[in-house]
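Protocol step 4 of 5: obtain the predicted structure for the target chain.
Materials: sequence only (see below). No template structures provided, no constraints applied. The aim of this step is simply to have a reference model before the mutagenesis design in step 5. Sequence pasted as it appears in the construct record:
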Amino acid sequence: MALFNPAEQVFQAMLDGWRNQQLSRNLAFTTIARREQVIQRFRSFTGEDPWSWTVGDVDEFFMELRAVRSASHSTLLAYQNALRLFLGYLTDPAYGWEQECMERFGIHPVQVCHEWNTAAHVQEASARPRKRPLTRDELQDLFDYADDRVDHALKQGAQRLDQRSAWPRPSKSPTPGAFGATRCACSN
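Step 4 output (structure tokens):
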């Protein structure tokens, strides 16, 4: 079937298909919208359609984001992930975009985001230190410190945890209904 504006219509159909694929994976609408904006922005930057994107386009786009626009590491990771996922969708034979593009344009999309031209996750969390969650080692250090403080307080007699504990004392008889105990078992 002949299209009025084949490049634009095929690109829009690609975005629509990718949106549907992400919706079927139950992703949030905001996540999908942000990813689509990245793809639109990349296309606008290159002036090319996805079937003509190159590794050089990726290098230039992310160099400008980092060097000129001072984008954060987490922004670069998110943008690169969106681009990688979109091209993964386009190059997956199950969706047929390679064949469609070959028939219409004589060229097909290829994956242009590789481990050697994209940023890597080098930390457990990529946020600023004041916003990131604690690592397992940091949590362990925190709990060890808290345990040491309790031991110190007990030795100093500053708190009498054994007498004024916030922990409930166990009762002498089982609680009716607890752990499947029946009323008759508790009365004995």
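Step 4 remarks: The mean pLDDT is 84. DSSP finds seven helices and no strands in the chain.
Proceed to step 5.
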